[in-house]
Amino acid sequence: MYSYINNIFYLKQKEGGGVQDNTLADNGYSDNYIVTISCPASSGIIAAVSGFLASHDCNINEMAQFDDEEIGCFFLRARFQIRTSSDAAISIEGLQQEFVGIAEDFEMKYAFHDEHKPMKVLIMVSRFDHCLADLLYQKSKQNLNLEITAVVSNHLDLRPMVERAGIRFVYKPVTRENKARMEEELMEIIEETDTELVVLARYMQILTDNLCQKLKGRAINIHHSFLPGFKGAKPYHQAYKRGVKLIGATAHYVTSDLDEGPIIEQEVQRVDHTFSPKDLSVAGRLSETIALTRAVRYHIERRVFLADDKTVIFK
Fold first, then answer.
1. pLDDT grade, residue 9 (50/70/90)?
2. 25-64 residue pLDDT tens
3. Could you confirm whether 259 is annotated as catalytic?
4. Which of 259, 272, 279, 309 is labelled catalytic?
5. The three-state (H, E, C) secondary structure of 234-258, written as one string
6. CATH number of 20-114
7. According to CATH, what is the number of the domain 2-14+117-313?
8. pTM score over 0.90
9. 3-state helix, strand, coil in the chain (%, to 5)
10. In this predicted structure, what is the pLDDT of residue 154?
11. Distances (CA, A) of 263 to 16, 231, 304
12. Where exactly are the structural domains of the chain?
């Protein structure tokens, strides 16, 4: 049941997103690039960006924008191709350099990205394998455009799974006494491998405030969600005793406030009195898998923008 539901889910996801074929690539256009922009809200931003790309013979095949009136910030994501058949064809590096003037005029924070360049991702796990297994599967099927730099774990249980996939496994057992040193060594791995995103795929350790600050906006965690909420040991048994009707999972950016970072994705399922604690746990794991993998995909496709304590996501 799990594989069937997941495969249907990802087929639908791939139809509506992910790295798509270049419809103009055979007609003298480059691969796809993405520009992401955030800046103070004002008039003329869309015209300036689209006009700039058009003036450099770029074809915009996707654009989304949002003006957050509450915080006075404007967000934009555009996906485009550069016409390479023109005598005046410009490189992506040249495009970035010429964009500086517009960026200064609107006080923009911006970045240009090559859509087909895999994002370097480090995964952290403990003993539960469902989220890791799905990330490995989606990568193998090219549904996630990422390069896994390493899998770091405080247990050895999942080492065979990781090494069968040809991925570096790093064992970092954590205790109260060595926690600071283990986190320093983790940052060394992140910097050594040029890791861009850290994914906590059911990593059952709390990160220190110091590490959370260093990984701000580039570390994603997953946790179960219930209505009402249950914390502590055996949450699914607690939910069963209370007769919950909704369970799910929340994927969010890591902050020093445990499980309270900016939310990227949530998945919810209805349950009823026929669900045993084991059934609730199985349903919960499915929700965790879907929410986490979807959140990772949004991040690597540059669809997520941080807006104070919340997110803006262009799907």
1. very low
2. 556 768 899 999 999 999 999 999 999 999 999 999 999 9
3. yes
4. 259
5. CHHHHHHHHCCCEEEEEEEECCCCC
6. 3.30.70.260
7. 3.40.50.170
8. no
9. 35, 30, 35
10. 97
11. 21, 18, 10
12. 2-14+117-313, 20-114
